[in-house]
């Protein structure tokens, strides 16, 4: 009986797409919330590390799980501006390798995520927009001498198809 009712209704592909989009957006928000929580915990670990040792680029080895969650969130919903803002923030942290040196690929990825948010300022939450703009300012302040490698090392074949990221660790 139930099957007959289901089969008697016309198939609404637009409704299916709306449901799928909503599901993806929900999954994306949940992944972003998990990334936010994990990032906060890893920041505490980083602060503890710095107190015990020097600021030797510990951020370059932390936050991979945070980025994995954010990449999944962005893949599920490319319009998740909070995920992109947090991704830009984490990538900027990871770009610092210590001794005043930055990884060019991670800087480019951070810039791309931040610019994505800024370019959609009409739909971005105020805190995300402010953070994205601040990240872009911070990147512009990095002296070229602190970025020893040229952008060409982040070649097209290094791009992650789902997110467009260039960093080999993403």
What can you see in these coordinates?
- It is built from 6 helices and 2 strands; from the N terminus they run H-H-H-H-E-E-H-H.
- With 170 residues, the chain is mostly helical.
- It has one domain.
- A two-stranded antiparallel ribbon has the order 1-2.
- Helix 2 runs antiparallel to helix 3, helix 3 runs antiparallel to helix 4 and helix 5 runs antiparallel to helix 6.
- The longest helix is centred in the first third of the chain and has 40 residues.
- The radius of gyration is 19 Å and the shape is globular.
- The termini are far apart.
What does this entry show, briefly?
62% of the residues lie in helices and 3% in strands. It is mostly helical. The protein starts with a helix and ends in a 29-residue tail after the last helix.
Q: Which features would summarize this protein structure in a list?
A:
mainly alpha; 6 helices; disordered N terminus; 170 residues; two-stranded antiparallel sheet; 62% helix
């Amino acid at each position: 009986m139930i099957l007959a009712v289901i089969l008697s209704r016309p198939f609404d592909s637009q409704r299916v797409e709306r449901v799928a989009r909503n599901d993806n957006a929900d999954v994306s928000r949940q992944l972003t919330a998990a990334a936010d929580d994990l990032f906060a915990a890893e920041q505490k670990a980083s602060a503890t590390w710095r107190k015990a040792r020097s600021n030797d680029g510990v951020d370059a080895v932390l936050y991979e799980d945070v980025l994995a969650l954010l990449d999944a969130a962005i893949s599920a919903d490319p319009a998740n501006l909070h995920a992109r803002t947090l991704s830009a923030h984490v990538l900027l942290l990871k770009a610092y390798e210590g001794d005043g040196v930055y990884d060019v690929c991670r800087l480019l990825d951070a810039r791309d995520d931040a610019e994505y948010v800024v370019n959609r300022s009409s739909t971005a939450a105020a805190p995300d927009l402010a953070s994205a703009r601040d990240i872009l300012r911070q990147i512009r302040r990095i002296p070229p001498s602190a970025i020893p490698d040229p952008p060409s090392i982040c070649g097209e074949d290094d791009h992650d198809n789902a997110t467009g990221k260039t960093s080999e660790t993403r």
